[in-house]
Amino acid sequence: MSKHLSTLLALFLAGTALSAQTNKELRPYRTLLKDISPAAIERYGAEAKKALELDRKHNDPKSGFRMSKAEYDRFQDNNKRYLEYLDFHNIGELGCSWYCGGELANIQSTSHLKAAGCIKYSADKAFDENLATAWVEGAEGIGQGESLSLQINSGTIHTISIYNGYQKDINTFRNNARVKRLALDINGKPYAVLALDDQAGVQLFRIDEVSGSHDKPLTLSFRILEVYPGAKYSDTAISDIVFDGPHH
After folding, report:
1. Is the pTM of this model over 0.90?
2. What is the pLDDT of residue 21?
3. Are 239 and 177 in contact (CB under 8 A)?
């Protein structure tokens, strides 16, 4: 048997062994595609700058420009994200989200790619609500078996949203590997395998409600079982994992 075939067989058997720990497979109950082409990123930046400039002029008595209250209310409503986030890559929820009360801690990974100058690929980059960054595993090969883990010290979750791959832009997304199947462990026990599609945007998974507190933290682990190969690199990336649950 050739070395190449032996390697492929070993990867297949390893994936089978990892996934055999749980036979529950979850698919996204909702998927929101995202255009991360250079044109879309440029268009967002132009619209955000335009909205900010109009807002500045409206609030500057010396500008000579003033919208009526109804016009300004409508303007703010239509441009909420532009006014809040100038950066295309920021995916933070407008207003008070689960993170107003939820608390993450002890974010770790089994490996991560070595930093390239000021660009870091550490585990925390998968939880920063910024698509310009990502956790990129640093093991040899495609990252099968590499994992992320964290604790939730406050809050209850029922939804896990995953931004698969490195979604900085479409070329970066395609060049790096993306996760195809991801094992989710809760408090050290296999819970389910998350089956991810190979597309930019967010994929939402519904789970049973689980809670964490400072006295009894909730531990979550995400382990790579299978990937979609990258066009240029074998490194596998996850841009962001976002949690949601009851919040006020």
Report:
1. no
2. 53
3. no
- Max CA distance (Å), the chain: 79
CA-based torsion, 198, 139, 125, 231: positive or negative: negative
Any bridge partners for residue 154, and if so which?
A: 103
User: Cα separation of 82 and 84, whole Å?
Assistant: 6
Tell me how far apart the alpha carbons of residues 221 and 44 are, in angstroms, rounded to a whole number. Answer: 34
**Residue recorded with tokens 């992320």:** 148
| CA nearest to 71, candidates 63, 79, 82 | 79
Residue with tokens 């395998």: 193
CA-CA distance, 222 to 143, in Å (whole number)? 12
pLDDT tens-digit series, residues 3-50: 444 434 444 554 444 444 556 999 999 999 999 999 999 999 999 999
- Mention every residue, 6+ apart, whose C-beta is less than 8 A from residue 156: 209, 210, 211, 212, 245, 246
CB 39 within 8 A of CB 205: no
> Which stretch of DSSP H or E encloses residue 204?
strand 201-212
CA–CA dist 214, 217 (Å, integer): 6
The first and second tokens of residue 200, run together, are 């930019």
CA angle 30, 208, 20 (to 5 degrees): 85
